[in-house]
């Protein structure tokens, strides 16, 4: 069985399950010629809010199909995704990537189940999550330059200030500043001067992207669509924001307490090979709200672009507003902390 990367001239349907599975079988006839087409089984996992994800199985083997949502190329650099994924697989942080089709990717299957939000909030998982983030940050090389602000500016170029629906326009005008680019620039100036370390980051460690293998008692990360070099503290801060959940309106009262965050950061430093240092932890804690603010602004702008482009049934505009409100709150917390 060869695992060389292959390209397939196929489009998988997002709307018709029959058409989608027929196209998948056509791909598998070339990718896994020993699989008997009539005995291939399909299981759907679509929990991402931008993609359709399912597995195809035969015998004891499975492969995963990730079908990109319409217009997601406006918020996801698909070439970067493939490059990053292959680099991560090489270092043992991602399932092998077998190939791509016109609107998606085919990869290996990681044993385990995505965590549920109640499980992620269970402190017993925090040590393993902190450990895996530390391993990622210390294993995959980068050139030391972050791309996070560049990505935000790219999102803004995709955003049309004029919304199609009048009620969306009214909501946007009422709840967002006229110059979002100025907010990004302000944040960039504040963050750059802190000189926080840069690492290869996942950048989207929400509950669905964290897989727990019950047999091995290990944590793995999936979905590297937004993986790129970034401030290590951003990756941690972004993860902390995700304890609010993604279904419906996020509940930020469910985020980790200060003590829980302190333990998490301490574990992260320990597993990253850094000796316990109260000065370093204190510095990270002082800067943490600013990086939480950056994560909230990133996803707020992302969701605004999705409002105008996505065909997935999800209220991106309300989600963008929830994230923008948290951006303002976390930024204010950071500024207040400077005065104490």
Automatic annotation (TrEMBL):
<comment type="similarity">
    <text>Belongs to the choline/ethanolamine kinase family.</text>
</comment>
<dbReference type="InterPro" id="IPR011009">
    <property type="entry name" value="Kinase-like_dom_sf"/>
</dbReference>
<keyword id="KW-0444">Lipid biosynthesis</keyword>
<dbReference type="Pfam" id="PF01633">
    <property type="entry name" value="Choline_kinase"/>
</dbReference>
<protein>
    <recommendedName>
        <fullName>ethanolamine kinase</fullName>
        <ecNumber>2.7.1.82</ecNumber>
    </recommendedName>
</protein>
<keyword id="KW-0443">Lipid metabolism</keyword>
<comment type="pathway">
    <text>Phospholipid metabolism; phosphatidylethanolamine biosynthesis; phosphatidylethanolamine from ethanolamine: step 1/3.</text>
</comment>
<keyword id="KW-0594">Phospholipid biosynthesis</keyword>
<dbReference type="GO" id="GO:0006646">
    <property type="term" value="P:phosphatidylethanolamine biosynthetic process"/>
</dbReference>
<dbReference type="GO" id="GO:0004305">
    <property type="term" value="F:ethanolamine kinase activity"/>
</dbReference>
<keyword id="KW-1208">Phospholipid metabolism</keyword>
<dbReference type="GO" id="GO:0005737">
    <property type="term" value="C:cytoplasm"/>
</dbReference>
């Amino acid at each position: 069985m060869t695992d060389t990367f292959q390209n397939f001239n196929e489009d998988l349907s997002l709307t018709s399950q029959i058409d989608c599975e027929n196209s998948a079988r056509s791909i598998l006839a070339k990718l896994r010629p020993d699989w008997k087409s009539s005995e291939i089984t399909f299981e759907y996992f679509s929990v991402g809010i931008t993609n359709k994800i399912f597995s195809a199985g035969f015998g004891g083997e499975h492969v995963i199909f990730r079908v990109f949502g319409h217009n997601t190329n406006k918020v996801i650099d698909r070439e970067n995704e493939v490059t990053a994924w292959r680099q991560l697989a090489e270092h043992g942080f991602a399932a092998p990537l077998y190939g791509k089709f016109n609107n998606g990717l085919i990869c290996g299957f990681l044993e385990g189940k995505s965590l549920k939000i109640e499980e992620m909030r269970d402190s017993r998982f925090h040590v393993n999550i902190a450990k895996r983030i530390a391993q990622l940050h210390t294993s995959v090389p980068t050139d030391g330059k972050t791309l996070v602000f560049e990505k935000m500016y790219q999102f803004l170029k995709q955003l049309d200030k004029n919304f199609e629906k009048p009620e969306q326009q009214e909501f946007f005008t009422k709840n967002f500043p006229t110059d979002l680019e100025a907010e990004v620039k302000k944040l960039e100036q504040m963050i750059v001067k802190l000189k926080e370390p840069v690492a290869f980051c996942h950048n989207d460690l929400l509950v669905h992207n964290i897989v727990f293998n019950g047999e091995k008692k290990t944590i793995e990360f999936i979905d590297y669509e937004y993986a790129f070099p970034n401030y290590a503290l951003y990756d941690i801060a972004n993860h902390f924001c995700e304890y609010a959940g993604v279904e419906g309106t996020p509940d930020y009262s469910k985020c980790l307490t200060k003590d829980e965050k302190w333990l998490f950061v301490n574990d992260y430093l320990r597993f990253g090979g850094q000796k316990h240092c109260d000065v370093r932890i204190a510095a990270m804690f002082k800067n943490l709200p600013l990086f939480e603010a950056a994560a909230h602004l990133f996803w707020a702008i992302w969701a605004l672009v999705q409002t105008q482009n996505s065909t997935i049934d999800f209220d991106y505009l309300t989600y963008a507003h929830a994230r923008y409100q948290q951006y303002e709150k976390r930024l204010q917390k950071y500024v207040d902390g400077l005065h104490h």
